[in-house]
Fold Uricase.
Amino acid sequence: YGKNTIKFLRLHKEGKKHFVKEVEVCVHLRLTSPQEYLEGDNSLVIPTDTIKNIVLVLAKKNGIPSLEQFAIDICNHFMTTFCQVAYVKTYVQEVPWQRLHEDGVPHVHSFICVPDGIRFCEAEQCRNGPLIVFAGIKDLKLMKTTQSGFEGFYKNEHTTLPERHDRILCGEFFCKWSYGECKDFDFDCIWKKIRECILEAFAGPPDHGEYSPSYQKTVNCIQMLILSRVPQVQVIEAVLNNTFYNVVDMKNLGLTNDKEVLVPVETPYGSCACTLGRKRFFEA
């Protein structure tokens, strides 16, 4: 049981300059006894309102140095404070506020919400067990208008999809990775590096790009680049929900439409997913 959707804004001031972190937190607990379920005995139950207040107090006292560290602080608090807690899991999601710039000068107290992917993390711990940390990015919308195709696929009597060697590749990307046992990582730096890997592998070099023969191959290239550059990542899960675009037929309007006006196919849409990890992790 636990408390979901604890939303708050943490404002930190350094002189005239302000810093903000707006987050949504979920905390789930498992107690050492199921007596509240089986017997209606609530003597060990920490009320969900208390859980909410603890999260707010920790934000006030400790701040949010990183999403991962805040999730770790929450797990540590419940494990060290309540002997009846056998397991705790914390999810933290950030609202993507970015500092405003005017003529290249950063504003001291104004921000803009930029929908370029939402950062999140999870931390979980069993009593007498290691603290495990996950992190990720979701709702990251990506598009490239060429250097993508889909050819040579399996065909039978039900196949109507034509082969394409030049198409728009567009989708909403979700990515979640595991650090394994928690260590003293620079979580902010790692998250930014992984986001850079995602964009680089998806787009390719800026002057000519990188050809994608399928959504599946693109997902795998992203995962492989992350694992090659970020040794702290042990396992990475990725999902790409595809958005397809059809060229509008303008012949009846007396126009030739050379892939200049397209409309998105709302439903159904495709999706591909892959989980990739280091061999030593799966062997363990």
